[in-house]
Design a protein that fits this description.
alpha/beta; Rossmann fold; 21% strand; seven-stranded mixed sheet
Length: 182
């Protein structure tokens, strides 16, 4: 069994374990860590993660971040000016980040049976260079009632995570789910 199939197998085992309800937000975050080169394979199997979750008697709600920035940018009045002078975009990016966090928080709060639901986030790599993944996860973690599953294309070394194996990672206490055996 290789790559994404092993990750799915390990996720299936993990999602079936009994859930403790009295955990802090950061303890309810799961990172499904996989090599960035497997992004397309992962996306093709997201439905299998949903099925595994539902077979474990939990709800599933998926949020794909891939189009978040393009949709936000398309709605901006000054988008053409940002393309002409990208350095002017820095302040606008703060607005994007806040709007994205607010949108996802609202989805978390409207989730039916939230305490028994996996809220999955994919497309994290599409935010690379726009915002730090750590900022998003830290903003969402306190609002998680069930579990937050973050599909994480990158690398984990202990509690240090590096998105896309690129910049220095950050130390986070999420539960890692990997394609490793055991």
């Amino acid at each position: 069994m290789a790559g994404i199939e092993r990750l799915l197998f390990n996720y299936d085992k993990y999602v079936r374990l009994p859930w403790q309800q009295v955990l802090a937000g950061p303890q309810k975050v799961w990172f499904a860590v996989y090599p960035p080169t497997d992004e397309r394979r992962l996306r093709a199997r997201v439905g299998a993660f949903e099925t595994a979750t539902q077979q474990a008697a939990h709800g599933w709600l998926h949020h794909d971040l891939t189009d978040a920035f393009p949709q936000w940018m398309a709605a901006q009045e000054y988008r053409e000016a940002y393309f002409e002078t990208p350095e002017d975009m820095e302040m606008a990016l703060d607005d994007f980040v806040q709007e994205l966090i607010t949108t996802i928080r609202e989805r978390l709060h409207t989730c039916p049976d939230a305490a028994n639901t996996v809220f999955a986030i994919s497309g994290l790599a599409s935010l690379f260079g726009l915002m730090r993944a750590s900022r998003l996860i830290e903003a969402l973690a306190p609002h998680v009632q069930g579990r937050l599953l973050v599909f994480f294309p990158g690398h984990r070394d202990g509690t240090n995570y590096r998105l896309l194996d690129a910049r220095d990672g950050w130390n986070y206490l999420a539960i890692p789910i990997t394609a490793e055996e055991g």
